[in-house]
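Box S1 | Example of a co-folding query
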Amino acid sequence: MSSNSKIFFNNKKREKYSNIAIGLNTLIFMKKHNFFAGPAVLPEIVKTKASQAALDYNNTGLSIMEISHRSNEFVAVLDNTEKYIRTILNLDDNYSVLLLTGGASTQFFMTAMNLANKNDSIGYVDTGAWSSKAIKEAKILSNVEILASSKDKNYNYIPYDYNIPESCAYVHLTSNNTIFGTQTKKWPDTDKFLVCDMSSDIFSRQIPLEKFGLIYAGAQKNAGPSGVTIVIVRKNILGKIERTLPTILKYQTHIDKKSSFNTPPVFPIYVSMLTMEWILEKGGIDEIAERNAIKAKTLYDEIDSNPLFVGTANKDDRSTMNVTFLINDPNLEQLFLDNCTKAGIVGIAGHRSVGGFRASIYNALEQESVDTLVGVMKEMAVKVG
Ligand code: PMP
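Box S1 (continued) | Returned holo structure for 4'-deoxy-4'-aminopyridoxal-5'-phosphate
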């Protein structure tokens, strides 16, 4: 091979490989529409600020992950996170805000441990897989009374017609059922306090705060990354039980130690702080709720009008966070998934226990992403229908 033909060959090769690389880059770097159920989409600005802080936090020359949790810098992060949560939810001093570890799953038993005696009974409304898990844990510690369940219809609705016996210490609800796509819209009329798993819809809409004794949520949907769990507890419901608890499992410990009894998850808390800041910058819950309602309506309207698709949740109980639906012809499932992938849509497959599709449209998901999904659904109906 002459030196000229070698250059020619190398140029050809370079061109070929660079075309492949451009193709790959387009796939990898094309805008992704993230419909995962959790961990889930985060606001762009949060990711940008978090990446800067991962390298150099506020010009300290240290990563946020390298500073002491007792340092002034991190104490300020903790204080701000609490302050922002208080502002977003309009919390007064009767409530404590805790930033814990162990996920919402730890709260399944920590709530019962701290709020009910062994012989007390706790009322549970069973609205799905996560409620069932909460019930299972509570049964280890106290008596459980199932007030109502939607298991008879594979959890496709929220039961509202139930009585709360006087004997119940409190009532536990799951506000939004991430897997089944249903959401509680009416809160029980009771003088018992509510304990609520709000993992998948916290900060997404206004709630009647006075009804809640305790709210918990894993952060990884609407409140940041996984690794931190938010607990909001009304102080006057604590200190009433007879059990002796390990120190770290007492809410009072974390109240007294300002969420730093042991080393808190500094990076997840920092990213949650940024997420709270973003919610406030967007205009707070009212604005966020309005955006959420428009996104949900866009998608449900398409599901209801497109002959290829059908929603799985009872219409009145549909979640504004997790939209569950099926394609009428199962043979088209793969084609739909492929079309989604081509459009940059990720995380649309339904939970493994239910199948079909689930679009999680949390606070940080942009309308543009919902519009892209609806576009793919419309195009499929034209081509296939
Ligand atoms: N409750 C609900 C409603 C959830 O969606 C989840 C997680 N998807 C959990 C509890 C469990 O949360 P964690 O993984 O933080 O324990």
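The pocket of 4'-deoxy-4'-aminopyridoxal-5'-phosphate is lined by residues 38, 103-105, 130, 174, 178, 197, 199-200, 218 (CB under 6 Å). The first strand starts at residue 33 and ends at 34.
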